[in-house]
Amino acid sequence: MVKTALGIVKEEGLFKLWQGILPAIYRHSIYSGIRIVIYEYLKENVLTKEKDGTFPLWKSAVNGCTAGAIGQFIASPADLVKVQIQMEGKRRLLGKPPRIKTANAAFAKIYKEGGIRGLWKGAVPNVNRAALVNLGDLSTYDYAKRAILNNTSLPDSHLCHFLSSVCAGFVASVMGTPADVIKTRIMNQPTDEKGNGLLYKNSLDCLTKTVKNEGLFALYKGFLPVWIRLAPWSLTFWMTFEQIRYVIGATSF
Fold first, then answer.
1. pLDDT digits (tens, 9 = 90+) for 116-147
2. Which of 201, 214, 207, 209 is nearest to 179 (CA)?
3. Phi, psi at 197, each rounded to 5°
4. Is 196 left (phi over 0), alpha (psi -120 to 50) or beta?
5. Burial tier of 140 (Cβ tally within 10 Å: 0-12, 13-18, 19+)
6. Which residues form the Solcar repeats (predicted)?
7. Which of these, 10, 137, 5, 116, lies nearest to 71 by C-alpha position?
8. pLDDT digits (tens, 9 = 90+) for 57-74
């Protein structure tokens, strides 16, 4: 991972590490906003607290999966644009002219080639991953925070938010890495003339063959890079989110 980053800096410059940041901001603005709103709506109106005021972990898990899946599905076009823009660096290294230069141009190109459906190409594995990641992130943060407040003397403070977000980032990585492995293998497998995969039929087939041929821990290849990415994201998001709620006078998450 470090070698790859250094190679990008050497060949294309430091700022190329942030190539595709605009569609990434688009994606997270949509994705994160929707997942939080849906999670809180489900928590208040669908799978709600018990009569004694407790909120079972299974309800939090279902709400987290649902919120993450819906948020990712809606944000999928921005996710696709982000990947396409980031891949333009490889074309430049090969001496080829860039196909797209801006996020708007990428949206237009995808729509022209595939129509509305083209904007959701590859959405299924991404939705599956988002459901698992939010099962870890949303559910763990909510559960860990309540556990800390109910079982320790810590107040609803920065330290409480920090500890909860650390737990959330780790569990999200544990839940999301297998989906990342499967998604990567499906996307990188050779295909026939019709575009059908030669190694795996679908995500379930890839999961089954990977575990059968390589063992369960093969699903956690690349765990460290995933954790290094998700841990800072979880920490930054939750502490910022809680502070914003405090500043605007909203109740704590």
1. 887 887 788 788 888 999 998 999 999 999 99
2. 207
3. -65, 140
4. beta
5. buried
6. 1-45, 55-147, 156-247
7. 137
8. 899 899 999 999 999 999
